[in-house]
Amino acid sequence: MSYMCPVCNGFQQLQYSCPICEYPAVDQGRLNDMYGPYSAYRPIDDIKLTNGYADVSEHECIHVILCPRCDRTFPLPVQEQLLSPR
Q1: Closest to 16 measured CA to CA, from 8, 4, 28
Q2: Is there a contact between 18 and 67 (Cβ–Cβ < 8 Å)?
Q3: What's the pLDDT score for residue 21?
């Protein structure tokens, strides 16, 4: 079975507030893409096995969220959707 992130694929936008100050936060992209210059080219599930989150078993895509007001970043898991077979 294959899963995909609806945010990464443009099907939905993240609308989330900072848990500290409740200001609207900004999506900075996938956490896995921030591990290094070539991390975006590694297979997604390969990085998920070593990033310290249960995102493989939970079918989540971890995004980094930035609060422009308090300048904090935090991870936000996005539930991946099952792709229907053709």
Answers
A1: 28
A2: yes
A3: 95
In the numeric block, which tokens belong to residue 60?
């989540």
Question: pTM score > 0.85 for this model?
Answer: no
32 CB neighbour count, 10 Å cutoff: 23
Distances (CA, A) of 12 to 7, 27, 39, 70: 5, 12, 24, 25
Residue type, 11: F
Q: Output the 3-class SS for 50-68.
A: CCCCCHHHHCEEEEEEEEC
* C-alpha distances in Å from residue 3, one per residue of 36, 51, 58, 64: 24, 18, 11, 20
Q: What percent of the chain has pLDDT over 70?
A: 79
* pLDDT tens-digit map of 33-71: 776 666 666 666 666 766 677 787 788 999 999 999 999
